[in-house]
Design goal:
With 329 residues, this protein is α/β, with parallel strands linked by helices. The chain is built from 15 helices and eleven strands. Strand 6 and strand 7 form a beta hairpin. The chain starts with a helix and ends with a helix.
């Protein structure tokens, strides 16, 4: 719990040290690492989108190593069944014909679960994650099983390959706290990646904190203060994403079919509190709202067919909202 300035500075320093340790293994991608840590400290799930080969799997595994979390990977394929994720009830045959039932946990029972290429599985299998992501439980054989804490789902998807994929429904997308875009590295970063990965000795991340210490930081983030005027601005940002709002930007009215729901506001405030903690501040600022709005709203604003045909993005819609709110402050 944060009670003094020294405790706030210590918490901020621990998060910075964690980020630096991840940087010893992962070249570049500073924004991705930062947003991924926001997600973990806010206790949410993240969807990472990027072309193959950008190190998404290595990044998630490295985060698990630095925080001493139990790592579990699920490779999503079209023939993957829900029970392959959640687990199944087995029948044990004993002596004299007696039988007993035993639940065999699936790979979802981990602290940090990587759902690799999640959009390759059928909607039925994708929905198996919904209960786990929202409730932290798995139901099998009529019984509910509690997942370990902390529990995070970090899913990846390939934006350029559409054959054999099943787009995630909006209801499931809304369960992800953030959607993080993984960009292609620069020339210098690409050179450094090759030098690291083709040498005899490859860097390995050290444990920087335990799962219990991570949960302490999650509680500390919840203590950060949000002034009434800052909360009003965050509400305004979310409401302006709806084309039916009278004060919505013209681009929203023309190119957006559906705006963000209540979870978007919860996400903006939760992640902004984490950003305030990492910056060594006790209060959320307007800049925190601006920085967190993009990854929060990226997958929650549904564009019209006209906007998609024109190649417009939800990020552009969010930037239009932020510019209008800024102008009206």
């Amino acid at each position: 719990m944060i009670e003094t300035k020294a405790q706030l500075e210590l918490a901020s320093a621990r998060i910075a040290a964690l980020k630096d340790e991840i940087g010893r293994v992962i070249v570049g991608q500073q924004t991705v690492v930062e947003q991924l840590l926001w997600c973990l400290l806010a206790g949410g799930h993240a969807l990472l989108e990027g072309i193959p080969g950008l190190g998404k799997t290595m990044l998630v595994r490295t985060v698990a190593d630095t925080v001493a979390l139990q790592f579990s990977r699920i490779q999503f394929t079209p023939d993957l069944m829900p029970s392959d994720i959640t687990g199944t009830t087995l029948i044990d045959f004993g002596a004299q014909g007696t039988t007993s039932h035993r639940f065999q946990p699936g790979p979802i029972f981990g602290n940090l679960v990587l759902a690799d290429e999640i959009n390759r599985a059928t909607p039925k299998t994708q929905s198996a994650l919904l209960e786990a992501m929202q409730e932290g439980t798995v139901t099998a054989g009529g019984e509910s099983h509690q997942l370990p804490k902390p529990f995070f789902v970090l899913a990846t998807q390939n934006p350029i390959e559409q054959e054999g994929t099943y787009p995630l429904p909006e209801a499931q997308l809304d369960r992800f706290l953030l959607k993080i875009g993984v960009e292609y590295p620069s020339r210098a970063e690409l050179k450094q990646i090759v030098q690291r990965t083709t040498s005899l000795e490859q860097p390995k991340a050290s444990v920087m904190m335990t799962a219990a210490e991570l949960m302490e930081l999650q509680l500390a983030a919840k203590q950060m203060l949000v002034a009434e005027d800052i909360l009003d601005l965050a509400v305004k940002v979310v409401m302006m994403s709806h084309p039916g709002e009278s004060d919505a930007p013209d681009e929203i009215k023309r190119y957006v079919r559906f705006g963000a729901g209540p979870r978007a506001l919860q996400a903006i405030i939760s992640v902004s509190k984490v950003r305030a903690l990492t910056s060594g501040r006790l209060h959320v600022s307007w800049n925190d709202i601006c920085q967190t709005a993009l990854p929060v709203l990226r997958h929650r604003i549904v564009l019209s067919y006209e906007a998609q045909a024109m190649g417009l993005s939800s990020d552009r819609m969010t930037e239009a909202i932020l510019q209008k709110v800024e102008a009206e402050r």
